Amino acid sequence: MEKPSTPKLSLGDLKDELIEHLMQELCTPLTNIKTALKLLESPTIKPPQRQRYLGLIGGECERQNSLISGVNRLIALDRISDRARIIPLQLSQIIPGIVSTYQPLAAEKGVRLGYTIADNLPPVIFVETWLRQIAIDLLHNGIKYTRSGGRVFVQAAVQDEYVRLEFLDTGIGIPPAEMPKIFNRFYRIRSSADDDNNSAGLGLTIVQNILLRCGGSISVASQIGVGSKFRVLLPMGG
């Protein structure tokens, strides 16, 4: 069953909580890096162990970088919200280009990638850079959580006073117990198709905040082993 998103407070209202969570999230990779460096000092360490510890250090550095980048994006979103330019936009002029950009990544993973965006869809009233960010985050998510031989697809249609933009994948799916948490800051699904757990857990939080600021919404339907569908509602223009 599709679950509607829960409105979030602004970053300004949650700044102290955000900083507290960020400090907790940064402590874990730092501790893991320090432990790995200590183990690398052992004179009896074997080559396979050395490679494993070096890989751990690289992964944790990537996680820290992702955390810092994600928080910077949240801060930037809060700062520019009052100056953002909301204009009529045609999805057919934006989404195909983004899908094409991700074709090489999908092909490398053995994932089929496609879209259906009609030219005659009504324009949406949105901030162009934010619309692109939403599409990039959700498309990247779909590819990341889909195994080789799977499919990721983007489609759009009119729904009442909105244009409905959907991102569908045949990925690993989201466990029911995790569905209410996926839009929470720093929350990461515990396992992925490529065992990559270095993300900051901020992508969906940012997508949701962008949509709330522009009069849109996001919801998700998912089934383990079958895939997920993220449904974005964008306010329609005249």
Give the integer mean of the pLDDT values: 80
Q: How many angstroms does the end-to-end distance come to?
A: 32 Å
Order of adjacent strands in the largest pleated sheet: 1-7-8-6-5-3
Q: Can you count the helices?
A: 5
Count of β-strands: 8
C-alpha Rg (nearest Å): 19 Å
User: Helix- and strand-based class?
Assistant: alpha+beta
Low-confidence segments: 1-11
Q: Regarding quaternary structure, how should these chains be classified? A: single chain
Percent of residues in helices comes to 40-55%
Shape: globular
Strand content: 15-25%
> How do the SSEs run, as a string of H and E?
EHHEHEEHEEHEE
Largest sheet: 6 strands, mixed
